[in-house]
Amino acid sequence: QVQLVESGGGSGQAGGSLRLSCKGSGYTYRRAYMAWFRQAPGKEREGVAGANSDSSESYTYADSVKGRFTIARDNANNALYLEMNRLTTEDTAMYYCAAESPPVPSVVRLRPSAYTYWGQGTQVTVSS
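Above: the chain sequence. Below: its structure as tokens.
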């Protein structure tokens, strides 16, 4: 049974930083394509960042977070991270970790429909 558990959410100030973590189990983590999504109240779930599994270290970012957020994975510990810097109030949302067996074509890596496995989410609230 695949399980993804997020942690690290909370409250932050605009301009500040937060770090999210996702711990995976029950699947071949090293091969899975992993990604972070977020969903704000009243809005659709949107892709934030994705990380490939192989040594190519291929990363994908939404335009809204490029240069501010960094995704990283630790295959040895089945972990995925999202370092969020220069936070804005627009970053307030529930953040979800997702996993999918490869291949995940680059054109769909930030689409929720491309992923089978999801965590329960962790809330991030940014105040001005």
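The first strand starts at residue 3 and ends at 7.
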